[in-house]
């Protein structure tokens, strides 16, 4: 029975061919041909069948980068340049480029953060979302390298951004652009401007003669300075008053960033009981150490150059206290990425200085050696602090080392006798002054009073010899 199937199939095909040939010139043949022909609409609109269309964007052209676009600015690999805004007469405006990508906004943000960090850009400000309710939300990342400042403004979805408004799509393009594609588009702008003053070197010694006014009113941290005149030192606790007076006479208690002298001959307010900031203490620490050890260059803290990569994201090269704070970081005296502390990326210059940080930064300048290992029990047994467990482990080592300095320990000189260290308590200006009044180990240290006596003796031309400063000096002697 299976052998009969090929015969039947052959006969059917033969009958079909005879029928077609018989009506080749008839109207039935034309109808049959039309029914089997391809749909002419598919020729005019291949997209209807899912085929790519060559006429979707007849007016689309590629926009080239500006000729002055800096090669050091990273370009997101999946982004397409949409618009270039010509520079304006305003030198702070710079050039603005608008880009789009189908990638999510967090991918764009992550790309630029990594590129800037890996290529030694200075992060001026981290991405911060605009105020709640803004449409659309925008994240802004600002970075600087030498005199080039770049602002990346990232937003998700279509619409306008903080720099350039995006034109509404035309009906023709809207018809060819699926709604889902527009909703997933990320737009961002790159604004770049070169600031000639950003990378300007600081005034050198050869410029002092041509710029006497600037050099006379501004001192670098740690450099010789004119004595400070304060009218309210009497408001300081009596036990700390002499420390403030000695340091003011040395000219190291600058209240303004960069050592700017705002106090007149009539004096200014020191506000000894006011909380000191981390920035101010770092400035005093460097200035006092370098002034007290003016005749010992090997014990001075080197001020950092503005050419180095900042150790902290919130202390850029342009910060007036950058040389002192960066110098402390490069000397390993304060925790930073340079000491392997991955969490110390921010210095928080305007935050209050705490007791534990006062000791942590100061004690290494006294011992001039590695801090000992410490435990809570060891600190309790030596100092008798009931709250030793509240102190950070790093600071705990400095607290224990400070005990070895006997009566010249910073804790005794600053806080007196106490069974509570209160490590997180803010420090006052008078207390900070007491801490930086003396440097060194017991029996071989130098005080601000010693430094003043040495200065007076050196300024006397009739002096035959300069006696060594007494390591046991105290403000009451």
Task: Sum this structure up briefly.
With 477 residues, the protein is an alpha+beta fold. It is built from 16 helices and eight strands.
SSE string: HHHEEHEEEHHEHHHHHHHHHEEH
- Percent helix, as a range, is 25-40%
Q: What's the Cα radius of gyration? A: 37 Å
Average pLDDT level: 76
Uncertain ranges: 46-60, 129-135, 158-182, 196-219, 259-265
User: Based on CA inertia axes, which overall geometry fits?
Assistant: elongated
Distance between the termini: 131 Å
Measured by DSSP, the beta-strand proportion falls in 5-15%
Largest sheet composition: 6 strands, antiparallel
Strand order of the largest sheet: 1-2-6-5-4-3
Structure, described:
- This protein is an alpha+beta fold and 477 residues long.
- Among the domains are: 80-169 and 179-194, TATA-Binding Protein; 215-353 and 426-459, no CATH class.
- The protein is built from 16 helices and eight strands.
- The strands form two sheets. Strands 1-2-6-5-4-3 form a six-stranded antiparallel β-sheet, covered by helices on one side. A two-stranded antiparallel ribbon has the order 7-8.
- Strand 4 and strand 5 form a beta hairpin.
- Helix 9 (278-292) packs across helix 10 and helix 11 packs across helix 13 (393-403).
- The protein is elongated, with a radius of gyration of 37 Å.
- The model is unreliable at 46-60, 129-135, 158-182, 196-219 and 259-265 (pLDDT under 50).
